[in-house]
Design goal:
Layout (H helix, E strand, L loop, with lengths): L2 H26 L2 H10 L13 E6 L9 E10 L4 E15 L2 E6 L10 E2 L6 E3 L4 E3 L5 E3 L11 E4 L2 E5 L14 H4 L3 H5 L3
Antiparallel strand pairs: 1-10, 2-3, 3-4, 5-6, 6-7, 7-8, 9-10
Bound molecules: FE2/S2 (inorganic) cluster (FES).
């Protein structure tokens, strides 16, 4: 076979491979924004992250003073590629003292069971492994490695707003794990 024929064959092979590459890259470009969308999107209330937006909890004057009240947290549940609005993300214990409100997550720091009132009515208890917490959420006894998790709260125009966050379970140190919980936020929040 002549050198000319070999050269032509190599040239055609190069053009074919190069052209296919350019064509494939051109087809992939429109898909890039779709794939990156979850990473570029603003945090939703339901992603449980440190910078999740505040969501409405209740009117301040609707909260009894001193007595804790369990309230649902309603906001947008964020999944990897979807966002569902008006979902129950979880629940909290809210306590008002005058104009000040403290809000504690109902999710037990041990393994995530929902925390309810203690039998004596003075604090809180987790029914799964009998962890006890004081009225301010501090740990009293049981396997929970830390006290109940407080959530950022603010009062605006008479409305109490909370930032829904999720924390790492089973550790003494409190750490927000919003992104890690993102994909399952809607499912796990139903347990709270
Ligand atoms: S999950 Fe609450 S004590 Fe274990």
């Amino acid at each position: 076979m002549s050198d000319d024929a070999d050269g032509r064959r190599r040239f055609l092979a190069t053009v074919t491979v190069g052209g296919s590459g350019v064509l494939a890259a051109g087809m992939l470009v429109p898909a890039v924004p779709y794939v990156l969308d979850p990473l570029l999107r603003d945090a939703g209330a339901g992603d449980g992250s440190a910078d999740a937006p505040f969501v409405r909890l209740a009117r301040l004057d609707a909260l009894p003073t001193r007595e804790p009240r369990r309230l649902p947290v309603i906001g947008d549940a964020v999944d990897a590629w979807t966002r569902a609005t008006g979902r129950v993300l979880g629940s909290v214990w809210a306590r008002r003292a005058g104009e000040r409100v403290t809000v504690l997550s109902t999710i037990c720091p041990h393994l995530g069971c929902p925390i309810g009132p203690s039998e004596d009515g003075r604090g809180f208890a987790c029914p799964c492994h009998t962890s006890l917490f004081a009225a301010d959420g501090s740990r009293v006894s049981g396997p929970s490695p830390r006290g109940m998790d407080p959530l950022p709260v603010r009062v605006r125009d008479g409305v109490v707003e909370v930032r829904w966050q999720r924390f790492r379970q089973g550790t003494a140190e409190r750490e927000v794990v919003g992104d890690a919980s993102r994909a399952c936020a809607a499912v796990r929040s139903r347990r709270a």
